[in-house]
Design brief:
The chain is an all-beta fold. The chain has a domain of 76 residues: Immunoglobulin-like, CATH 2.60.40.3080. The protein is 0% helix and 60% strand. The chain is built from no helices and ten strands. The strands form three sheets. Strands 7-6-9-10 form a four-stranded antiparallel β-sheet, with no helix packed on it. A three-stranded antiparallel β-sheet has the order 1-2-3, with no helix packed on it. A three-stranded antiparallel β-sheet has the order 4-5-8, with no helix packed on it. A hairpin with a 4-residue loop joins strand 4 and strand 5. The radius of gyration is 16 Å and the shape is globular. The protein starts with a strand and ends with a strand.
Amino acid sequence: MGKTFVILFFLCFGISLSIIAQNQDTIKYSFLPIEQITAYYDRINASIVVNALPENTKFTAELYDITGLSIIKSELNSLNRRIEIPVVLKQGVYILIVGTKNYSVTRKFRVN
């Protein structure tokens, strides 16, 4: 059973536990500070800002409007625990999914 597998549990209230198993004998636990990760739209710079991410990590970002229409998909690197996704958004509610190959975080935000 030497295959690597990832199990990602999402509990209500935004807390998650990521379990990465190398084989049956070795299990590594990694607690993610999900509740600390924030996302908001910066109208002045026309970008979505995501804070409190692990430093120097490659992320994928997917943005959807409330109807499920895909707005943008991109790959970014977090510098200084933050990423900025350049995009012009109209007024409405959006869903942002930011993740790595091991876990993902979903945030909903409103643009007024």
